[in-house]
Amino acid sequence: MDIDLSPEELAFRDEVRAFLAENLPAEVKDGAAASPTVFVEPDIGQRWNAVLNAKGWLAYQWPKEVGGTGWTPTQRYIFEKECALAGAPNLTVLGLKLVAPVIYTFGTPAQKAKYLPKILSGEDYWCQGFSEPGSGSDLASLQCRATLSEDGTHYKLNGSKIWTTHAHWANKMFALVRTDANVKKQAGISFLLVDMNQPGVSVRPLLTLAGDHEVNQVFLEDAIVPVEDRVAEEGDGWKLAKFLLENERGGSCHSPKLEYDLAQIEQAARDEPDGAGGKLADDKDWKRRVAKVRLGIQSLEMIELKILSEIAKGRAPGPQTSLCKLLASNLRQDVDLLAVDLYGPAGLQLDFARPLYGDNAPAPIHSKGAQVASARYLNSRAWTIFGGTNEVQAGIIARTVLGL
């Protein structure tokens, strides 16, 4: 695997760096740094999306024929890495990186024309209706029922979805629902696009240990979905879900963001006392911990680049993405634990006010980094659960990669 960039790719990297230096608003960067959750709030995320959309770079993973950049896998990687190293917020992954690929790969021309432009403009903000109170890791056991009307024009939905990120902001939800209870459980699932702004849809907030309102429970009571908003055929939902989850687990590169956050921690450690008259950055045990995490991040990057190489050859991401998800989840928690330990008692402050950025944000006791450390640590406990638990990923790796 050749990881050296060509002259053309180096020129592209320089173009991205220059754009970020000139166009990434300071308040957006500061807001992202002060957000403890996985997804930044829409006021930050959508503002950054709009900047990239105006440049024509928002749909950087999409094919050109559906409104994307048509970039090569290497260009996409360069873009993600430079955005991460510049401190830019994560993009609105649920619309751009999860449902959009499903729509442009499996959707009808009408679905593509209806939904893709609104994802780019920000008119549609999506949430994901997969997990249910009794169906988390065993997603195929979901029970949210979609019943086809007698005239075949629409489905009526009944059930609930849980841990639904940003459902309180979303006007659309892509959902897995059971359309046939008399076949193998995986075969009876369909993929529907649900309008959240209708009678029969209600959202209840679920506050995390850190006090963040990021996830919700969504209740569906006779909610209506037209048949034309079913993606692919009835019963194809499991196939589409596996496609989507491979993109979620391996469609992005986690290592650059981890690298950026570790660098911020290392920088801050130069000013933090070690309790023995020196600076924490010079403490041997601290340096050993940082080095171990850095090596893990570098190893993850090599795996991500290997997957990138396979994608560049026209191959699907495949089950190797589960390895990326597993490693990235553990490393995310390692990095956030380092941040809490870095600040000592000051890193234990847990301010429940939100947001922690902007004019109305509470003043930090020690520093902005310390203020967000505990909240981010608590939030990152979910990394080893969402998108498939560590145990699920280990099972996939054992079966499909190691052949056990």
TrEMBL record:
Family per record = Belongs to the acyl-CoA dehydrogenase family.
Which residues belong to any copy of the Acyl-CoA dehydrogenase/oxidase C-terminal domain? 235-401
CC cofactor: FAD
Q: Does the keyword Nucleotide-binding apply?
A: no
Domain named Acyl-CoA oxidase/dehydrogenase middle is located at 127-215
Organism of this sequence: Novosphingobium taihuense
Does Oxidoreductase show up as a keyword for this record?
yes
Name the UniProt record assigns to this protein? Alkylation response protein AidB-like acyl-CoA dehydrogenase
* Record Pfam families: Acyl-CoA_dh_1, Acyl-CoA_dh_M, Acyl-CoA_dh_N
| Cited SUPFAM superfamilies | Acyl-CoA dehydrogenase C-terminal domain-like (SSF47203), Acyl-CoA dehydrogenase NM domain-like (SSF56645)
GO CC, sorted alphabetically, is: plasma membrane
Keywords annotated in UniProt: FAD, Flavoprotein, Oxidoreductase
Q: Name one GO molecular function term.
A: oxidoreductase activity, acting on the CH-CH group of donors
> Where do the Acyl-CoA dehydrogenase/oxidase N-terminal domain residues begin and end?
6-123
Extract the PANTHER family matched here. ACYL-COA DEHYDROGENASE (PTHR43292), ACYL-COA DEHYDROGENASE FADE29 (PTHR43292:SF3)
